[in-house]
Amino acid sequence: MLKNIDPALNADVLHALRSMGHADTLVISDTNFPSDAIARQTTLGKLLRIDNISAARAIKAILSVMPLDTPIQPSVGRMEVMGAPGEVPPVQREVQAEVDAAEGKASPMYGIERFAFYEEAKKAYCVITTGETRFYGCFMLTKGVIPPETA
């Protein structure tokens, strides 16, 4: 056990988050996403898991250690509902609340069409699958930077 590290973050996930650089993306996926097949095509090349918790809970844990690239652009994408791209289902509203809490302000997510999401996910640094069973519990996060402390 480590101090001040969310227990949902296992060693493999922590290593990947630390290894990512500015503007690298990661995918948080639900249980229906083709996680393993997509993960094999990412930079990391293997699937990571945070099992038995929701997508919102996983994102809360990740954002406790990883900065988002929000000053420049929206940094969290969500898979759009097929046929209703403006619809934001409960799982996505829960994630939006975690993103806003982590950023300390409203940080709206952007939509990504389902098949475009699959293609963008292949370009990600890694895929982390969760225990989320609800549809459209798939998200893409862009890593930001931590500025130096001023002397």
From TrEMBL:
One of its GO terms (biological process) is fucose metabolic process. The keyword Isomerase applies. Pfam families: RbsD_FucU. Transmembrane segments: none annotated. It comes from the Bacteria. Keywords: Isomerase. GO terms for molecular function: D-ribose pyranase activity; fucose binding; L-fucose mutarotase activity. It catalyses: beta-D-ribopyranose = beta-D-ribofuranose; alpha-L-fucose = beta-L-fucose. InterPro entries: RbsD-like_sf, RbsD/FucU_mutarotase, RbsD_FucU. SUPFAM superfamilies: RbsD-like. This is Fucose-binding protein. It comes from Phyllobacterium pellucidum. The lineage of its organism: Bacteria, Pseudomonadati, Pseudomonadota, Alphaproteobacteria, Hyphomicrobiales.
